[in-house]
Design a protein that fits this description.
The chain contains seven helices and five strands, in the order αβαβαβααβαβα. It has 179 residues and is an alpha/beta fold. Helix 3 links the parallel strand 2 and strand 3.
Length: 179
């Protein structure tokens, strides 16, 4: 119940916010396959939003990611590649303070459609804790949605991070607990 109270307070606060803010950046959660689906999708999406910086957390090796964006004609100065994250929760926790420091209040959140429910749960908690709103942009796939248990588990981990700064990730061996 103690963890539920902050979540309920946050949801009430979010409901009271009526005016959506135009996204000021694109945030991409890494973890795509060898076909670089998320990167390719984002490169195409970025052409439609030419003034937005692109933050990519994890995913494909930098040279492959940079090549996809270069081929799409995206200015490399727009790319911010971050490889600190070891799982979905840390995709958010490693970027949120940098986004906030740049005055970013709203982002497009790009990840695979099967992963979006969990990303939204974590995003509401982690990004929301810093006053950052997001608009989900799912990358189409043929995979079924992840089990709801993953969303619940990582939602709890995100709440613990907001309260304590601890993500529950195993930084020792960099093994992901959710991929």
């Amino acid at each position: 119940m103690v963890l539920a109270l902050p979540l309920l307070m946050w949801l009430g606060y979010k409901e009271s916010q009526n005016e959506p803010i135009q996204p000021q950046a694109v945030v991409v959660l890494g973890g795509s396959t060898k076909r670089l689906e998320r990167e390719r999708f984002t490169a195409s999406f970025a052409r439609q939003h030419p003034n937005l910086p692109i933050w990519i957390s994890g995913g494909s090796p930098p040279r492959y990611t940079q090549k996809v964006f270069a081929k799409a004609g995206i200015d490399p100065k727009r790319l911010h590649l971050d490889y600190e994250a070891v799982d979905t929760v840390t995709n958010f926790t490693t970027l949120v303070d940098r986004l906030q420091a740049r005055g970013i209040k709203s982002v497009y959140l790009v990840t695979s459609d099967y992963h979006m429910r969990r990303a939204c749960v974590i995003g509401e908690i982690v990004l929301g804790s810093r006053g950052i709103d997001f608009k989900p942009v799912p990358v189409p796939s043929k995979q079924s949605s992840e089990p709801v248990e993953k969303s619940i588990r990582d939602g709890v981990r995100a709440l613990v991070w907001v309260a304590t700064g601890y993500t529950g990730a195993d930084d020792q061996n960099k093994q992901s607990i959710d991929r």
